[in-house]
Design a protein that fits this description.
Chain lengths: 404, 145
């Protein structure tokens, strides 16, 4: 309750503070932009992303962006980010990104530091609400479950754009580094609760990958391909009679996304298809007699189609459909205790109101079928237990964002 | 006076000529202006698009390109549609995405043609667009190929 009241109060405070500030600040070449969002989520059954059954305000973001052009070729940038979505984020201040960018020319540039992962069409901007029509990016491709791994990496990336004459241009970015680690993330807590452990320790490993985006000669039409590999180690301590469970050599091996987007006037059509293979070697710590489970391989798949249309300066409409399958070898839920935990299908209808240039309000309705990758029962409430979980359920999402 | 077939043909040809000339007449309404320290005297349409979408950040001599956008609706909407193929709201969203992902620093805005001319004049590597009738000697007009 304190958290709920605090987030509403914080948002109201910032709205009052910035109501006359409708532009970015600049101090001696340092550019400052920012945003603050507050959302409300309500599901009629099942918890999704947060303690949503019955409604929650546990959904907000605050970002402060700093940019400085140090020379013709060097730019420094950082985003101080606070986010909260259920157990994720908890409004801890982190760097969304923080890197130096050396731009040699249009064909070649280098970024060094904490860099947003160029995954799919929209991953790099997933925390910035006012950049899209919908409240959520399609969860079938942009998983909140794996936010820890998908958001950013520490390392180096090389990027640029290559002109292709009459067939358009090709943007590229390749990167290598180390992924983010967060012991308080939903990914860790889900595993701690489902195994009955006390706490989890996530150690990040290598992260590398790349993206190609072909801007075709047809105005507004582009295609993309993303490849992303990471590895990590997750130890869940004090699991009942076993000392610990170790998810050793966990690999997202790899994640691949095919993307297409077509902008025609005020209409934007998009579709993406994602598939990833998760390898995890599971053992029960070194000092027990329980044999290791060995390597478990899961192939997951998700896709969506979406459309958004700006009707006028005030209103934008959006609609989408997505499907996600936790294990593509068991799409129909065979050998699941509850078969509809194998998938999640989502029809989304969105409306966005641009009240001013700096203030956006959104309302969204989700018609859901299936319960794939919902929070573990007990993480928020007992709504997702085998006895209580429902196949057909709905969600209302409301969100407002102020930016400058 | 009797309207002959020749008259009809003449009127038809005049109409077609007007329609053919229309795009050139409209395009001429907006000029691309740069600071006098910019060496380029001409630029391609595709480079204009690359510059205003943050994909071409430097002039040929390595100087940083500094974009200045006129907030007047009329020439801006026309310019964006003609060269960038985006609506005003799409253009704003595109740049917010560049800024909030750290890929760019927000372009500067001019609230009037007079302010734009002054800003382009005083900004090294500066580029903007303006109603052709309002161009003066403080800036250099570059030809669009």
């Amino acid at each position: 309750m304190i958290s709920k009241n605090l987030s509403i109060f914080t948002f109201g405070f910032f709205l009052l503070l910035f109501q006359h500030v409708c532009y970015a600040y600049e101090f001696n070449g340092l550019n400052i932009n920012g945003f603050i969002s507050q959302g409300y989520l309500h599901t009629n059954h099942n918890d999704y992303l947060a303690d949503t059954k019955g409604g929650t305000f546990d959904f907000n973001e605050l970002g402060l962006n700093l940019g400085y052009q140090a020379s013709d070729s060097i730019r420094l940038g950082a985003q101080i980010l606070s986010r909260n979505l259920g157990v994720d984020g908890n409004n801890k201040l982190t760097f969304g990104y923080a890197y130096g960018d050396y731009n040699l020319n249009r064909y070649l540039g280098v970024r060094l530091g904490k860099v947003r992962i160029p995954y799919g069409l929209y991953n790099q901007s997933r925390d910035v609400d006012m950049l899209r029509t919908s409240v959520f990016l399609p969860n079938a491709v942009y998983h909140d479950e794996f936010y820890t791994f998908f958001s950013a990496f520490y390392g180096v990336s090389i990027y640029g754009e290559l002109p292709l004459g009459n067939v358009g241009s090709m943007e590229y970015e390749v990167y290598k580094g180390k992924s983010e680690e967060d012991d308080e993330s939903r990914l860790v807590k889900n595993n701690v609760i489902s195994l009955g452990g006390e706490n989890g320790d996530l150690t990040a490993g290598d992260a590398y990958g790349g993206v190609l985006r072909w801007n075709t000669p047809i105005n507004g039409l582009r295609f993309g391909y993303s490849y992303f590999y990471i590895d990590a180690k997750l130890v869940i301590d004090n699991v009942n009679i076993i000392e610990s469970v170790v998810f050793d050599k966990v690999k997202l091996n790899p994640i691949q996304v095919l993307s297409a987007e077509f902008t025609w006037g005020d209409l934007v059509l998009a579709s993406e298809f994602m598939r990833f293979r998760q390898d995890a070697y599971i053992d029960f710590s070194d000092n027990t007699f329980v044999p290791d489970i060995g390597t478990v391989i899961t192939n997951s798949e998700g896709w969506y189609v979406s459309a958004s249309y700006r009707y006028n300066e005030l209103i934008e409409f959006g609609a989408g459909y997505s499907e996600f399958y936790e294990n593509i070898d068991k799409k129909n839920g065979s050998n699941y205790a509850v078969d509809f935990r194998a998938w999640r299908k989502d029809i989304t209808l969105s409306t966005r109101f641009d009240i001013t240039d700096n203030w956006v309000v959104k309302a969204e309705y989700h018609i859901m079928d299936g319960a794939g990758w919902l929070p573990t029962p007990g993480l928020y409430s007992d709504a997702n237990s085998d006895e209580n979980i429902k196949q057909k359920w709905n969600m209302i999402a409301l969100k407002t964002t102020f930016s400058f | 006076m009797k309207i002959t077939k020749q008259h009809k043909l003449l009127v038809y040809l005049l109409l077609v000529s007007c329609l053919l000339l229309l795009p050139f007449t409209v395009r001429a309404r907006v000029s691309i202006i740069v600071n006098h320290d910019v060496a380029e005297s001409s630029i391609s349409s595709s480079d204009i698009k690359s510059i205003f979408t943050n994909k071409l950040p430097k002039w040929d001599d390595g100087k940083k390109i500094n974009i200045i956008i006129l907030t007047d609706r009329e020439p801006t909407e026309y310019f964006l549609k003609q060269y960038i193929h985006k609506s005003l709201s799409q253009f704003k969203t595109y740049w917010l995405k560049q800024v909030f992902t750290g890929k760019a620093i927000m372009f500067k805005s001019a609230r009037s043609p007079e302010e734009l001319l002054e800003m382009v004049n005083s900004t090294s590597g500066g580029i903007g667009f303006i109603d052709s009738k309002k161009v003066d000697k403080r800036v250099k007009v570059i030809k669009v190929n």
